[in-house]
Structures are given as C-alpha cells and as structure tokens.
Specification:
- By secondary structure, the protein is an alpha/beta fold.
- The protein folds into 2 domains: 148 residues, NAD(P)-binding Rossmann-like Domain (Rossmann fold, 3-Layer(aba) Sandwich); 25 residues, no CATH class.
- Helix content is 41%, strand content 12%.
- The chain is built from 8 helices and 7 strands, in the order αβαββαββαβααβαα.
- Strands 1-2-6 form a 3-stranded parallel beta sheet, with helices on both faces.
- The longest helix is centred in the N-terminal third of the chain and has 20 residues.
- The relative contact order is 0.18.
Length: 211
C-alpha cells in the first residue's frame, strides 16, 4: 500500500511542482531484529525506497522524507501479540510527539529522520558495529523490553500438486507448491519511484549527506 500510494500521489505533486511525501519506517530499518525479522526487513525497504525517490525528485519541487520512530506508544505490540515490560517503558515516546517531530523535519526538507535523541544516537552508532553484533543487541533489547502474550500466526502448510496439505513435520513432495513468502509479507517485486524517475534532474547538493 505504501508503494502504491507513493506512486499514485507523486504525479500530481510533480505537476504542481510542490509537495511532500512522508513515509513511516522504524529504527528497526537500521538493524536486523531477531523475533521481528520480517518487520525490520520491511522497514529497511521503506527507508531505501524513500531515499531513492527523494533523489529522483531533485529539481521537481517535491521532497520525500522517511521517519524512523523508536519505541512509540501505539497498539503495535497488542497487534503483534506482545506486551511492554516495565523495563521498556522509559524508552517509549508518545505518538503525538513523534508526529510533531516528523512533520517539522519533513517541512525542513530532511530526507531521513530518527525521532528522539537516544534513538538518533543509536542509529548513528549502528553504522560502526558489525552486523552480527547489531542482531545480538537488537535481540537483547527486544527480549528485555517486551514479552509475548500470544503465539504468532503460523504460515500455511505447503500444498502438493493435487492440493493435499503435507502433515506437520513432513517434507513436501518435489513438485509441491510452496507459498510465496513475499505475498504474505508484502515484500519483493515493488519498483522504486518509477513515477518520479523521469522528473529527476539536478545533482545532489554538497550538504546532502548531512540530511
């Protein structure tokens, strides 16, 4: 939906030579997150998509901004079958505060925004750590901050050519049809900013890396 909406709204903005695209990713876009693997991967997609589109939009009067919140008080954990532990309360930001920061930075022309000082510091330090360390740190942080309250939904069992479902623990037949993971998670196959690609004109500004 995020990709589709971005592509649908960009042509009108480009025609008017004015507008802002604000996409919401997460601090998880900066690191692998064990136990939230698909979530973090999808947020990395949002961040990279938005940064690429913003580059393509140069010279059009339109900008794209990706906001990366850290822990925010929403219904997210309930929907994910998780509960916030007391140890994780201190790091949570209100949704209203997060939104104010996002809009202010978007209007200031920032391409990438991490809300909250500690979150921004974490995102900066992540650059210098080996990827396995990042995964370990993310796992420790998630384990200490949240706990599961409900099991995650199971993926459907693979079906054989005749529509039969393999029993638990069995390997599917060689010709079995395995569900497409990208269809379940919304990943894969999405183009990045085609609607804006032809409109890009100018080279990046000298201070672009600071945005």
């Amino acid at each position: 939906a995020l990709t589709e909406l971005t592509h649908r709204f960009l042509p009108g903005m480009i025609a008017r030579r004015h507008g802002h695209v604000l996409n919401v990713a997460s601090l998880g876009a900066y690191t692998p997150c064990p136990t939230f693997a698909v979530y973090a991967a999808s947020k990395a997609y949002v961040r990279n998509l938005t940064e690429a589109i913003d580059f393509e939009l140069r010279g059009t009067g339109v900008r794209a901004t990706c906001v990366n919140p850290g822990g925010t008080r929403t219904e997210f954990l309930d929907a994910a079958g998780q509960r916030l532990k007391q140890a994780g309360e201190w790091s949570m930001m209100s949704a209203e505060a997060c939104a104010r920061i996002a809009v202010r930075k978007m209007l200031a022309g920032r391409r990438n925004v991490v809300t909250g000082f500690l979150n921004a510091l974490s995102a900066f330090l992540f650059r210098f750590l080996p990827r396995p360390w990042l995964a370990w740190l993310a796992y420790q942080g998630l384990s200490s901050g949240v706990e599961k309250t409900a099991p995650l939904a199971r993926l459907p069992a693979p079906e054989g050519p005749d529509g039969a479902v393999a029993a638990e623990g069995e390997e599917p037949d060689a010709g079995a049809t395995v569900p497409d993971a990208s269809a379940e998670t919304g990943g894969g196959g999405a183009s990045s900013g085609g609607a804006a690609a032809s409109a890009a004109a100018e080279a990046p500004a000298a201070d672009d890396d600071q945005r």
